[in-house]
Amino acid sequence: MELIKPEDPQYFTLSSNELYDRHHYKVISKSGETITVDNWEDLRNIWWNRKQFLSHVEVIDKPKARQSRGFQ
């Protein structure tokens, strides 16, 4: 397998140093138990430390905050 060279326009490194928080992640174990986390780092930690017990991960769009309309 040939890897993409760093000078190739398809080579990807990093697009932003900002936190990426566009999704929530539902981690499903082989036994059916679930854990939902709201950031990539927590998901990565769970996956790395418990991967032998896990089935898959569902990516969930982060709920949009409701905008207040003032007094109702």
Description:
With 72 residues, this protein is an alpha+beta fold. The chain has a domain at 23-61. The protein has one helix and three strands; from the N terminus they run ββαβ. It has one helix at residues 40-50, and strands spanning 23-29, 34-37, 54-61. It has a three-stranded antiparallel beta sheet, with helices on one face. A hairpin with a 4-residue loop joins strand 1 (23-29) and strand 2. It is flat. The termini are far apart.
Give a quick set of tags describing it.
alpha+beta, 72 residues, 1 helix, 3 strands, flat
How would you sum up this structure in a few lines?
This protein is an alpha+beta fold.
Q: What level of helicity do the residues show?
A: 10-25%
The value of Rg in angstroms is: 18 Å
What characteristic shape results from the CA principal axes?
A: flat
Number of strands: 3
What sequence of helices (H) and strands (E) makes up the elements?
Answer: EEHE
The end-to-end distance, rounded to whole angstroms, is: 62 Å
Report mean pLDDT, rounded to a whole number. 84
Q: How much β-strand is present in the residues? A: 25-35%
Strand order of the largest sheet: 2-1-3
Number of helices: 1
Query: Low-confidence parts lasting 5 or more residues at pLDDT below 50?
Result: none
Look at the helices and sheets and give the structural class. Answer: alpha+beta
The biggest beta sheet reads: 3 strands, antiparallel
